[in-house]
Amino acid sequence: MRTILKFVAVPMLCVLAAQAEPLAKGERDRAMSYLHATRKQFVDAIRGVTPEQARWKPAPGRWSVAEVVEHIAVSEEFIFKLVTGQILKGSPATPEQKALTAGKDATIPARVTDRSQKFQAPEPITPAGRFASLEAAEKEFLSARDRSIRFIEKTDLSLRDYVRPHPAMKELDAYQWILLMAAHTERHLKQLQEVKDSPGYPRR
Questions:
Q1: Whether CATH 3.30.70.100 fits 24-197
Q2: What is the residue-level pLDDT of the chain in tens, covering all 204 positions?
Q3: What angle do CA 140, 144, 147 make, to 5 degrees?
Q4: Are 85 and 202 within 8 A, CB to CB?
């Protein structure tokens, strides 16, 4: 009986090990590089913005710099909790689901940052005046982003084995959701620059 269990247990452990494969170094480095780069872009984008400039809107219904920054800050927390609190706590993806994520590492940055396509922000991450200042929003973002970076740097979880659909990108694995987090920041930093470039933006 012990011999039988031994021969059953070994293949099962091999299967579990294969399913629990951590990120490759190149994958980890790529995600960390993108997260660090968009972190710096965020800091640079709001440096020197005055309270008057932060509140100014190009037109009714369009976001101000402050609202764009708020959206970026709360989205970081929202996406991170989605990945760690829901996606990675769900059931592992089927081979068919994993197949649908193929090739998306390369396409996420271009597709997400394409400002020609507009989307309605979900209510939990719609600007609502959560922060008293840009500095407060920046502090929130940096805290959340640094946690995201530490997570990618240290995690041994098999991010490729868990999949959840995105409204526009469809099936993404947990690693790709992290790439999307950085791409989302880049997308809205483009929006922030559009506000700055609009006629009537207050000049110092």
A1: no
A2: 444 333 334 343 333 333 457 899 999 999 999 999 999 999 999 999 999 999 999 999 999 999 999 999 999 999 999 999 999 999 999 999 999 999 999 999 999 999 998 888 999 999 999 999 999 999 999 999 999 999 999 999 999 999 999 999 999 999 999 999 999 999 999 999 999 999 999 987
A3: 145
A4: no
